[in-house]
Amino acid sequence: MEKLVIEATKYTPEISFDCEKNVLGIRGKSYPENTSVFYSPVFKWLETYLDHEKSQDITVNMELIYFNSSSSKILMDFCDILDAAADNGKAITVNWVYEEDDEDALEFGEEFQEDLESVTFNLVEKPPG
Amino acid sequence: MLKDLYEFKKDLSRRGIFFCLSGPISQNLVAEIGSTLEQKMNLEDTRRSIVMRVFSTVVENAQNIMRYSDEKEEKLSLGIIAVGYEEDEHYFVLCGNMVENRKVERLRKNLTKLQKMNKHQLKEYYRWQRREGPPEESKGGAGLGFIDMAKKASKPIEFDFKEINEKFHFFSMKTVI
């Protein structure tokens, strides 16, 4: 299968899913007018990848400076899919990267961390900007 | 007209408002407004979490107008957004748009419910609604916008409905960050 790369725009994040290195990255801001239109190819790719990928070790870097409320729902669904795959035996590490001093982003990360049972979920602080 | 414009600007300043837009709102405009306000607040050395809360409240409000305003020109939705700074050192966001009369009661009920919740209840309600999935009337949203704003606000959201005619009310709300 091929890598999935979507360039960032002002209101959609950069998607860079590398199936050779098994590193999936979402980086930037997420507040598209219609979240399901933007994310549907992302979910499609993820499901195919999780079904076919033999490798057991997957790293997911979620580095979102801002996401709107409908993206928050999408991120939850995304994390649920990863958690189910981890439950089925894959070793999945999610790094939730948030800006120092952005307590709301940290809180979102903590909530996801609480909800997820099988993925390793790390909270990673980075300097703002 | 021209002299009034200065008076209008002064009136906005007197109310602490430093940004105001009335008219059609599009996704590109939302992105530009968001990043301009972000720049402005960064210049004022505003704390990062406050910058992000103001940014977020402006985006949620603008996208509410885009989805739910009942004043439309073709695909463009019309509304008004203003951002200001109060004397007690809080940013605030004002938002207004027309809604059909039949929607008023449901909105009023939803917002009154949020007004009565404390931070902890809002947090739990947000997580519950996110799991529950969008309500029918959400038009592509997740039904989380108002809860998100209430969560990020430093005091309960204020709102009002003004009757315009037999078809519309003007809905307005104020979120203090």
Q: Topology of this protein?
A:
The complex is a heterodimer of chains A (129) and B (177).
Chain A: E1 4-6, E2 14-18, E3 23-30, H1 35-52, E4 57-67, H2 69-87, E5 91-99, H3 103-115, E6 120-126
Parallel strand pairs in A: 3-4, 4-5, 5-6
Antiparallel strand pairs in A: 1-2, 2-3
Helix pairs in contact in A: 1-2
Chain B: H1 2-14, E1 17-25, H2 27-43, H3 48-68, E2 72-73, E3 76-85, E4 91-100, H4 104-115, H5 119-132, H6 145-152, E5 158-163, E6 168-176
Antiparallel strand pairs in B: 1-3, 2-3, 3-4, 4-6, 5-6
Helix pairs in contact in B: 2-3, 3-6, 5-6
Please provide a written account of the structure:
- Chain A has helices at residues 35-52, 69-87, 103-115, and strands at 4-6, 14-18, 23-30, 57-67, 91-99, 120-126.
- Chain A is an alpha/beta fold and 129 residues long.
- Chain A has a six-stranded mixed sheet with strand order 1-2-3-4-5-6, with helices on one face.
- The radius of gyration of chain A is 14 Å and the shape is globular.
- Chain A has one domain (4-126): Transcription Regulator spoIIAA (2-Layer Sandwich), CATH 3.30.750.
- Chain B is α+β, with helices and mostly antiparallel strands and 177 residues long.
- Chain B has a single domain (2-176), classed as Heat Shock Protein 90 (2-Layer Sandwich).
- Chain B contains six helices and six strands.
- In chain B, strands 1, 2, 3, 4, 5 and 6 form a six-stranded antiparallel sheet that branches.
- In chain B, a hairpin with a 2-residue loop joins strand 2 (72-73) and strand 3 (76-85).
- In chain B, helix 3 packs antiparallel against helix 6 and helix 5 (119-132) packs antiparallel against helix 6.
- The longest helix of chain B is centred in the first third of the chain and has 21 residues, at 48-68.
- Chain B starts with a helix and ends with a strand.
- At the A-B interface, helix 2 and helix 3 of A face helix 2, helix 3, helix 5 and helix 6 of B.
